[in-house]
Amino acid sequence: MERSMLDKKTELLKALLAEEKQEVRPMNKRLARERSALLQELFATFTEKHQISPGMLITWKPGMRNKKKPNYDEPAIVIEILESPVIGKTDESGSSYFREPLDLIAGFLDDDDDFVVFHYDSRRFMPFSK
To answer: Which of 46, 48, 65, 73 lies closest to 118 in space, CA to CA?
Structure first.
């Protein structure tokens, strides 16, 4: 019985090692071109500067939302622009929040219509237009 369990574990380990050695297929060229164009467009959106000041209504730039709230096209109000950003404390370098410069404090209405305030990266926002 014990030998059978060892054999199963060995087979599983061999299968995992074989999976690890499989080559990753390259992305097809058409999809790669489309994604590279989208990356360039999103970079331009991300780096586009907007004048944002306290009391102003803002919303996410297209393709820039990295937090659940507020929703796209939902207004938030600028509370404060920080001179020295708070740096995101996430320990994992693979996280989109790792060392994110949070230089914007904004408020919005949650699902219960309560006013809540969070820190954001201002580069992801633009003025809200009604």
So the answer is: 65
Query: What is the tens place of the pLDDT at every residue in 16-55?
Result: 666 666 666 677 888 888 888 899 999 999 999 999 999 9
Give the single-character DSSP code of 67.
Answer: S
**pLDDT value for 22:** 64
Asked if 109 contacts 76 with a C-beta cutoff of 8 angstroms, the reply is no
CA distance 8 to 1: 11
Q: What is the Cα–Cα distance from 92 to 5, expressed in whole angstroms?
A: 36
State the Cα–Cα distance between residues 98 and 120, nearest whole angstrom.
13
| Higher local confidence (pLDDT), 5 or 82 | 82
Report the largest interatomic distance among the alpha carbons of the chain, rounded to a whole angstrom: 72
